[in-house]
Amino acid sequence: MSWIDIGHIEDIPLHGARVVKTPVGCVGLFRTGPAEVFAASDRCPHKGGPLSEGIVHGQSVTCPLHNWVFDLNTGEAQGADAGRIETYPLRVEAGRLLIDGAAVGKRSAA
Amino acid sequence: MTQKLVIIGAGMASGRVIEHLLDADPNAYDITLFNAEPRGNYNRIMLSPVLSGEKTYEDIVTHSDEWYAEHGITCRFGEHVVKIDPEMKVVEGENGHVPYDKLVIATGSAPFTIPVPGHDLPGVISYRDLDDTNAMITAAAKGGKAVVIGGGLLGLEAAAGLKERGMDVTVLHLMGHLMERQLDEAAGYLLRKDLEARGITVKTQASTKAILGEDRAQAVHLESGETLGADLVVMAVGIRPETRLATDAHLDVARGIEVNAQMQTSDPDIYAVGECVEFGGHLFGLVAPLYDQAKVLADSLLGQPNAFVVKELATKLKVTGCDLFSAGDFAEGEGREDIVFRDPSRGVYKRLVIEDDRLVGAVMYGDTADGSWFFGLIKDATDIEEMRETLIFGPAFQGGASADPLSAVAALPPEAEICGCNGVCKGQITSAIDGGATDLGAIRSETKASASCGTCTGLVEQLLQVTLGDDFQMPQAQPVCGCTDLSHEDVRRLIKSQELKSQAAVWQELGWTTPNGCHVCRPAVNYYLLADWPLEYCDDPQSRFVNERKHANIQKDGTFSVVPRMWGGITTPDELRAIADAADKYDVPTVKVTGGQRIDLLGVKGEDLPAMWADLNRAGLVSGHAYSKGLRTVKTCVGTDHCRFGTQDSTGLGIKLEKHLWGSWTPHKLKLAVSGCPRNCAEATCKDIGVVCVDSGYEIHVGGAAGMEIKGTEILCKVATEEDAIEVISAMTQIYRENAKYLDRIYKWLAKVGLDWVKAQIVEDIENRKALAARFELSQSVYRKDPWAEHAQDSTTRAQYAPLANLTLEAAE
Fold it and tell me: Which residues of chain A are within 8 Å of residue B332 when distances are taken between CB atoms?
């Protein structure tokens, strides 16, 4: 894995989210706890809603367009809705957010 | 042959190393022990009881001078080590050199100091060793005010100790809740409540800007502008490994001195142990791993094979009356699930974190009796699948009890107000029940509780159930969401009667079953809190739907629409030019005139919003709140200015109303209109609140709708002057804000409480009308402002609109 530093955890509000633009599309960073952040596709499989604009609760996010709820651990839609978003490896180290560059289509710098 | 062992630092870790060495082979080493403090090893964990006066220094000494002498250890106490020379294998002390065969660095940690102006004034102390503790005891003897910076383990123990010694103590904590590394929000809330009950003031999200004083610390100045008087300032914001000697000796140092599993540094003859080391990316602050390290290090020094491994850790804070426990990893990792148990009546909160049928973390507050059992499950990685359903009830549990949904009401004290309209307390209702009033009707006639607006009906029924048990059949009320069994009305009343002023307080005291709510309850609770406690509660953007968080309407393609306010539907050529310029500059694909008499710019990219707002602000335009559950527009006709039928200045009144009401949050959207005559060109009679001007004054209408349902208004009252109209409308808005269920428009809420009740409150009762209008004004003192200007000007908020990073840009090659 090639870890890329993309920012500091305090750049994301608690129970909020931010976006990172990557070669595989926008990736949402969801801060579910003081020291807990998940990385997952920003795009809802239903109608393409921007998940990073949704309400973050527990370890889930709710799409702002039609209230689909996704478990950020697995990326699976919850309840009656069927669908899945891609999740990406992310590490928090001394407050820095490190995303797996390979997983988001970033070739390591030669 | 006896080798020479030099140890730098006489703390708990190195003390344990010496004990192991002496036990195994007392003649293996000739030991010299340096310590910068003028004393030997004592139990640092027990400094808190020394501070609070429960113990003395003598009680906590681990190794006395006699003990060192008896074991032939050469003590160089009160002497700083100047440097280590690994080439010559010599330690240079202030009073002379000592050669070594093996060296152990056990320099521990140093308190972290925030480098704010004034941090070096006398009267500012850290909390690390006995000297610090004694300095605090001396300062406390004079009494006065203490400010403790840092709401972690050490800071809170210092605060409790200083309070115990009679000081007036305030704790400042940078984060949103206390001990955020060990506790989640709910446990942090309970801890804060307990500390406050003991008279300690707690301020969270408090950032220290400077410590003020001439010759010594006299006050602490916060970023918020607040200044707190202080005779003593304790800085307990954290610790960092003390690595200076190792760095100077060119050993490998990251955050701490890097060691392998044998506690050996990059120099094979130099070892390190305790808080100064870093192993596998970990630092160590609690005593259990330090003792493990000490055992490994002793074995390494004796040539025995052993290896240090990092184990799970548990934290307990034993400040009397604050019973908390936290263990394992409840904050990081993937594939995890929560089990939450809350008992509001006992102030108990428990949360377990499960991953792959194993318990990985536990947080407990109020009842920590099962802590060690849970800790055992975590350490042993026990498969808990079989006991998952009842796990949270602990090892003693046999059978199928569940959390009691009535416990929030049962926990209320007798003086808690249940019925706000008639001022009826819980005690009056329970005595009525005891006196034979066993159904809702009897309670209403006996006490008047729930006999007016009726929103407390659910609570009265729960009281009947709690008091009568199975003799009372409770009607099913619709709960807010899956996180609670309480209805919206119940939650609203309980927020008022229990004076709950934070979301964490609501979750805990009302027994939420999830850690922090969901997308259904969070916006509702956030609204209730800001409506009831406008000055105390701070609006939480992360509990708002995106439109209200970003102050623009999200569209189906993820772009936004921007609607500047046009007061009463009046605009100017300059404003129109600014709107046209903004539409050009930001490539707005669609410009539309809205039904609320203003202009909608559709298809704006999220990243462009703050810049666009700044441009619009420069032309005097502010947010139209076209996205909010709050005041939208006040639509007007042209009135007496131009119209041959107009009876009053409807445009002028519309503008005044809009300037009075804008920025206010309401349970659902709030649309107004003012028509200048009964021809009603502004369509005031299908608005939430409408004014129809007549020759003799102003008819005030309420409860219209023209959406999913179409409903004409009903007349609330008629008043003679504009001032009266504005006062009645303020009172109407406020009574709706204070009482309605989240997402009920006025007409829906009126159907529940009845227009007659509202008339009694604000038409007939003039005093109450004025009180409501005054409360509305108080809330508006916080919320009557332009969110666009705030977001565009604040660099932190503005940054939230842009991506955190862009990995699509390839570096130039």
Answer: 35-36, 92
Question: In this predicted structure, what is the pLDDT of residue B468?
Answer: 83
Query: What is the CATH superfamily name and number for domain B631-783?
Result: Sulfite Reductase Hemoprotein, domain 1 (3.30.413.10)
- Residues lower than pLDDT 50 in chain B: 332, 398-403, 811-813
A15 vs B331, B542, B545: nearest CB: B542
Angle between the N-to-C axes of helices B130-141 and B153-164, in degrees from 0 to 180, rounded to the nearest 10: 40
Give, in order, the Cα–Cα distances in Å from B541 to each of A5, A14, B174, B523. Answer: 26, 10, 19, 9
Range A8-36 average pLDDT: 94
Question: What values do phi and psi take at B487, rounded to 5?
Answer: -85, 170
Look up the CATH superfamily of B547-627: Sulfite Reductase Hemoprotein;Domain 2 (3.90.480.10)
* A chain contacts of residue B794, beta-carbon cutoff 8 Å: none
- Strands B219-222 and B208-212, bridge-based pairing: antiparallel
Choose the CATH number for A3-100 among 2.102.10.10, 3.30.413.10, 2.40.10.10, 3.40.50.2300.
2.102.10.10
* Percent of chain A clearing pLDDT 90 (strictly above): 75
CA distances for B145 relative to B142, B163, B207, B230, B711, angstroms: 10, 10, 19, 5, 61
Q: Considering the domain B314-393 in this protein, what is its CATH number?
A: 3.30.390.30
pLDDT at B691: 97
In this complex, how many residue pairs, one in chain A and one in chain B, have their CB atoms less than 8 Å apart?
119
Nearest to B289 by CA among B315, B257, B270, B265: B315
Residues of B with CB under 8 A from a CB of A: 175-176, 180-181, 184, 255, 281, 331-332, 334-336, 338, 514-519, 522-523, 540-546, 549-550, 554, 556-558, 606, 799-800, 803-808, 811, 813
Residues 6+ apart with CB under 8 A from B715: B699, B700, B701
Fold entry, domain B3-110+241-301: FAD/NAD(P)-binding domain (3.50.50)
Cβ proximity of B530 and B537 under 8 Å: yes
CB of A74 within 8 Å of any CB in chain B? yes
Over residues B238-274, the pLDDT tens digits come to 888 999 999 999 999 999 999 999 999 999 999 999 9
| pLDDT at position B401 | 42
Q: For B36-86, write each residue's pLDDT tens digit.
A: 999 999 988 788 888 888 888 888 888 999 999 999 999 999 999 999 999
Q: Token pair of B528, please?
A: 């209730």
Residue of chain A with shortest Cα separation from B806: A21
- The Cα of B528 is separated from the nearest Cα of chain A by a number of Å equal to 18
Contact check, Cβ <8 Å, A57/B554: no
Ordered by start, the domain boundaries in chain B are 3-110+241-301, 124-237, 314-393, 407-538, 547-627, 631-783
Q: Assign domain B124-237 to its CATH superfamily.
A: FAD/NAD(P)-binding domain (3.50.50.60)
Tens digits of residue pLDDT in A64-105: 988 899 999 999 998 878 899 999 999 999 899 999 988 888
Domain ranges across chain A: 3-100
Which one of B278, B542, B547, B555 would you mutate to disrupt binding with A, by most A Cβ within 10 Å of its Cβ?
Answer: B542
Mutate to test the interface with A, among B807, B809, B810, B813 (most CBs of A within 10 A): B807
